[in-house]
């Protein structure tokens, strides 16, 4: 039912207006999912169930958060939202953008080059028009797998972070080595080889870790989470927490 309603609305309502009215529309729709079995960690809505997407993710009907958004918020809230910090978020989920924008004691900025997300800026991640050593935290979730020159993007992340600052990085992962092939360019072939029409590679955890370390980062692989099952999270999720050394 959710997918049918979403498709119908997106065909009728312009994107800009839909983004403006999304919170109201979701609140009305989420009435049918009210309950006590689950709770969204982003919007705190109590639910009888999450919506299962076509990709087998669990979506909050009230705010639209996916599993990775809910875990990211828990991680940010517990460890990384430091007062007076300056944060840059690449192509953020709308639910987290709205939540982070309301926090008064952080300087939260977002960027998206495609125009498909709510964003304050349109930076090219391989050529970020920002001074060196600017940010205390960068969120780079499901970005690098879209970037042909990912090494240049990683170098730019390193440059704009302050010494001692961190970035949270996540992509889809596979076992074995990184799989990439620059000759694969059509949407059809990219879907077949990389799992999505606009992806240019599939990383392995070890492969991405090595690329990040080669660019100077210290890398922590965070996994085996033990959060409350009521939040509807993926227990097998992997997040790379990378740090620019303090002596840089």
Q: Strands across the major sheet, in which order?
A: 6-5-7-8-13-12
Mean pLDDT comes to: 92
Task: Please state the overall shape, judged from the principal axes of the Cα atoms.
Answer: globular
Percent strand = 15-25%
Named CATH architecture of the largest domain: 3-Layer(aba) Sandwich
What oligomerization state is this entry in?
single chain
What is the C-level CATH assignment of the largest domain?
Alpha Beta
Radius of gyration: 18 Å
What is the string of helix and strand elements? HHEEEEHEHEEHEEEHEHEE
What distance separates the N and C termini?
Answer: 52 Å
Largest sheet: 6 strands, mixed
Description:
This protein has 248 residues and is an alpha/beta fold. The protein folds into two domains: 2-59, no CATH class; 67-243, Vaccinia Virus protein VP39 (Rossmann fold). It is 31% helix and 23% strand. It has seven helices and 13 strands. A six-stranded mixed sheet has the order 6-5-7-8-13-12, sandwiched between helices. Strands 9-11-10 form a three-stranded mixed sheet. A hairpin with a 6-residue loop joins strand 1 and strand 2. It is globular and about 50 Å long.
